[in-house]
Amino acid sequence: MSAPGKHLLLVGGGHAHVAVLADWIRHGRPKGARATLLTPHPALRYSGMVPGWMVGEHERLRGIVDLAGLAAAAGMDLELARAVAFDPVARTVTTAAGQRIAFDLASLDTGGVGHAASTLGEDDRIVEIRPIERFVERIAGWREANRVRAVRAAVVGGGAGGVELAFALRNLAGMAVRPEVVLVAGSAGLVPSMSRRVRRMVAGELERQGIAVVDGNARLASGALLAGETSQISLEPLDIVLAALGSAAPRWPGEGGLMVDADGFVAVDASQRSLSHPHVFAAGDVAARADRDVPHSGVHAVFAGPVLAANLRAALAGREPVERYRPRWNSLYLLSTGNGRAIASYGPFAAKGRWVARLKRWIDLRWINTYAGLAGAM
Question: Which residues pair with 87 in a beta bridge?
Answer without folding.
Answer: 92
